[in-house]
Amino acid sequence: MIEICRDHAANVKRWTDGQMVLRWCAAGMVEAAKQFRRVNGFLHLPALRKALDAHIAKTVTPSCDTDAAAA
């Protein structure tokens, strides 16, 4: 993506301000996004997230923020 942004902005000879830089960088990112591919198994990501949350909830101990635990 960075290389495509760099190539896209290479034609600019005179940068006027920071906003112009951001616009050209965003335009390069839009061009780069056309070449991105989906991650294999992306449909299974919600199930993975649910399984990871369940695993973390089971293995991580809760914090001791109550007054009874402090005493």
Outline the structure in words:
By secondary structure, the protein is mainly α. It has one domain (1-60). The chain has helices spanning 2-9, 18-33, 45-59, 67-70. Helix 1 (2-9) crosses helix 2. The longest helix has 16 residues, at 18-33. The protein is elongated and about 60 Å long. The N and C termini lie far apart (55 Å). The model has no long low-confidence stretch (mean pLDDT 84).
Task: Name the descriptors.
71 residues, mainly alpha, 0% strand
Summarize the structure.
This protein has helices at 2-9, 18-33, 45-59, 67-70.
Q: What is the count of distinct domains?
A: 1
Intertermini distance: 55 Å
Q: What's the helix count?
A: 4
Shape: elongated
Radius of gyration: 23 Å
Portion in beta strands = under 5%
Largest sheet composition: none
Low-confidence stretches: none
Relative helix content:
55-70%
Structural class by secondary-structure content = mainly alpha
Tell me the number of strands.
0
Average predicted confidence as pLDDT: 84
Order of helices and strands: HHHH
Tell me the layout of helices and strands.
Blueprint: H1 2-9, H2 18-33, H3 45-59, H4 67-70
Helix pairs in contact: 1-2
